[in-house]
Amino acid sequence: MMVYSGGLTAAFTLGFFYFVGAVPGGVAAGLPIWLAAFTAWLGYTAGAAVMLLLGTPARSWVARKLHIPLERDPDKWIWKAWSRFGLIGLGLLAPLTIGPQTGCILALAVGERPLKTFLSLSLGVVPYCFGFALAIAWGTSLVK
User: Fold this and answer.
1) Number of domains forming the structure of the chain
2) Contact 10/25 with Cβ under 8 angstroms?
């Protein structure tokens, strides 16, 4: 296990802050592909959990900063986007765009429940974990 400590740290930290580089970074640091993908998923999920623990203060700050009214107004851009894509869209797009921290804050700001937000973000990243792992496996098999 000590052999993998640097790779585990790299994949977890990158997953927490910048998911796109987490699986390749873990593999480059010496982890097996499956362990790099799993550790990146853990890091991403931990990033979502930390932001959900901050909860209400973060929600209030974002709602003020983005001028998000607490009542749904179909004329506002944020509510148009949310009614079209919702929590599932956020869960699938956040790993490649805004990350788990901003995704959690945004979902809380529009009034989503914390558990639904956590599940959406932690499950929405799974296809990307598999995709990056498969791409890396395929790429390394071509090189060998």
Assistant:
1) 1
2) yes
